[in-house]
Amino acid sequence: MDILEGSSDRSDALEAISESTRSWNEDASPDLLFVFHSSLQNPHAVAANLADKFPNTLIVGCSTAGEWITGQHKNHALVLTGISTPDIRWAVSVIEDLSAPPDDSARAVCSDLVRQLDINWSDLNAGGYFCLSFFDGLSKREESVIAAMASELGDVPLLGGSSGDDLKYDHAFVIANGKAYQHAAVFILAESRVPFRAIKHHHYIPGDHDVVITKASMADRVVNRLDGMPAAQRYAEVLGLEVEALTPQVFSDNPLAYQYSNECYVRALRRVCENDSLEFGCAIEEGMVLTVCKHKDMAAEYDTLMAELSPAAKKIPLLIVCNCIYRALEGMEGDLNQHLAEKTCSIADHMIGFDTYGEQWQGLHVNQTMVALALGIA
Asked: For the whole model, what pTM was predicted?
């Protein structure tokens, strides 16, 4: 597997692309190119200039809330990784309007992916195929669409992340086909003779305080009341804070989670809205019981994960990572993000990824989780 990579902190899209690819051969033409970029770089210019520079390459990616490249965690950057190998065939398709009926959209995009690979539905299997997803992280449509996609793909590993805009919550984009899209999702189906492993990781456990959603606007992911009180007031009260003190850092440090079958599914808090309601980054329902989570030590848990991934000290050729922005905010304390990036280098030759507004794992949309695909290990 041949891998090219680069990054740039330049805000101009063309300059960032030029700097990121400066060390690449002039005739470089990867089979697939991942691009993740901050809100500083214009997404339309990023998509168009990459398509001009690599006309024979499938190009996919999105805007971010932070960027990962081998050995580094970045903010306000553009990162690129190109993959070339005869052992993986790729297909890319886009749902251009996430407001369309999800079952119809999933069926159409899966049919397109299968057609591009020139395979039959019956050929799909968990050992030879995987699918990556990138969603507009402000669409609020991930749950229904990813569930429909999982239904179509069966047991094929399906994982990915929702695009961001550096916590501005204004405009998030996905990239494919030389274009930047809003309210859309990109799917990449791979037929792989290279071994791979799908990974999910978080470090939260149930805490001592439960709250109940007593009033909510489920379509908007807005909780109006917790335990019968204005939601932000009740959440702040449980933490011993004032509503004015609720920040993304506080949300990151004190996530709420729904427990099911001894597993915590975090429902990340996004912001305080008018009338002291709370906007979430994942699906919520009236009557749902949420627990305020406690943390395990993220560095220790991550180190354990890395050791489990590479027990024989055999390095992973490439790790593709979708990491929740709130994990990255937690990692800002004590420069933990850099520790995680450097730790990854101990088990992976290359890494590419981004900080997300939500993560997809099989048929679920989750929060405050890292999902990843390790290419080159079983």
From this structure: 0.89
